[in-house]
Amino acid sequence: MVSLGCPKNLVDSEVMLGLAAQSGYAITDDAGSADVIVVNTCGFIEAAKQESIDTILEMAALKAERPGRRLIVAGCLVERYRQQLPAELPEVDAFIGTNELEQLPHLLRTPAATVTPRPVVLRPRGGVPQRERTRPDADYLYSETTPRQRTTPRHYAYVKIAEGCDHPCAFCSIPQMRGHLRSRRIGSILAEVERLAEEGVREIILIGQDTTSYGEDLGLKQGLADLLRALAQVQGITWIRFLYAYPTRISDALLDVLASEPKLCPYIDMPLQHAATRMLHAMRRPGSRSFMEKLIARIRERVPGVALRTTFIVGYPGETQADFEVLLDFCAAQAFDWVGVFTYSDEEGTPAFDLPDKVPSRTAEARRAKLMRLQARLSKQRLRQFKRRVVEVLFEGPSDDSDLIWQGRIATQAPGIDGRVLITDAPEGFAPPQPGDLVHVEITATHTYDLVGRIVPNHRA
């Protein structure tokens, strides 16, 4: 299995692996020895689509080396380009969309089989004209009984709490691939997390296209807040965080539960996309710069010590230098803990695709680089406050960079996307902790995104 794209896609890959293993198939991490290769693709932006195509062709070359080897392509790229892909990629034996994961065992048992796409009904939503807001009325949603073979380290796991999205962002193709919002029941999520805790998982990361809309389709007024409060009672879980919050869905009830439950990481990942009001309107995003400034102040007031991660798009059609300067000024004033910046990707089928005044790619790349340089300075300055402090760290084991040092994370660092704590020293004779253990680390140095420190045993906060 080659899994590309975001953690949401990774969960789909883990479900397919679980289905294959349940059907009696052995899983190998060596593509050269596999009888079947599955590529789970991403189709979100141009760079991700190109990576998916390149990977498919790479695996197709491996397929050609052994007669009888089969290649299956799954995921968002299939859902988005279902009609075109079979003709463009004749090397592929079968295609599986995001709503057809459960058909994988059928394909494995019957080499000549093909996937029958689920019937889809296209419907307008929210009063938006149909040509701009149609999407498959998909219904697939995994549950606590779905087999799943995790690929993340033993001490943390992603849990998908909902699928699909009902927001009208003009640049986004996700509704075309994932359908409308549909939430899992709280009991289903709770049962899955309890099982994960029994398996040794210590950190739960809740994901969805918009986790803060969780439960709206089930009639829950404060769905995410209620879910977090329930999950905080699960024995064995140390940390819980959620990713991909929507600005207008950050309620006081959600902030209150974040501030009051010790297991909930004081961390909010909230993609804002821009700060210039005219750009937000063009993107079909809510609010204004003033609204976002008030929201951020409210979050920081109600959740002491909270870390804010966000993402922005530069080079959106019609973005002027003045708009970009507004974004720079906003970032400098807010001093976010973590920032990701994307250059706009022109995606067919989205309202933004038809907009005039496209920004040259060179200009967009220059703006991205400038904003990231600003964030690097802000991050370096912010991390200096940790020097000589003793912090609680979730131990993860040997560093990704060297087996000679360890690494871990503080509660305001999510895996894979934020900085780390590099542990370079421990008392002589100190037994290495196990991944998922909490240890105390005195910070001895700081870098642009990472902290460096030494373990302090028996520390009392």
From TrEMBL:
Cofactor: [4Fe-4S] cluster
Statement: the UniProt record of this protein carries the keyword Hydrolase: no
Cited SMART domains: Elp3
Tree of life domain: Bacteria
Compartment(s) where it occurs, according to its Swiss-Prot or TrEMBL record: Cytoplasm
Residues holding [4Fe-4S] cluster 2: C165, C169, C172
Domain Radical SAM core intervals: 151-381
Enzyme Commission code(s) on record: 2.8.4.4
GO cellular component, one term: cytosol
Key words of the record: 4Fe-4S, Cytoplasm, Iron, Iron-sulfur, Metal-binding, Ribonucleoprotein, Ribosomal protein, S-adenosyl-L-methionine, Transferase
Cofactor binding note: Binds 2 [4Fe-4S] clusters. One cluster is coordinated with 3 cysteines and an exchangeable S-adenosyl-L-methionine.
A single GO molecular function term of this UniProt record: aspartic acid methylthiotransferase activity
Location, primary (coarse class): cytoplasm
Catalytic activity: L-aspartate(89)-[ribosomal protein uS12]-hydrogen + (sulfur carrier)-SH + AH2 + 2 S-adenosyl-L-methionine = 3-methylsulfanyl-L-aspartate(89)-[ribosomal protein uS12]-hydrogen + (sulfur carrier)-H + 5'-deoxyadenosine + L-methionine + A + S-adenosyl-L-homocysteine + 2 H(+)
Pfam families found in the cross-reference section: Radical_SAM (PF04055), TRAM_2 (PF18693), UPF0004 (PF00919)
Keyword NAD part of the UniProt annotation: no
Residues covered by region (Disordered): 119-138
Function: Catalyzes the methylthiolation of an aspartic acid residue of ribosomal protein uS12.
Protein name: Ribosomal protein uS12 methylthiotransferase RimO
Species whose genome carries this gene: Chloracidobacterium thermophilum (strain B)
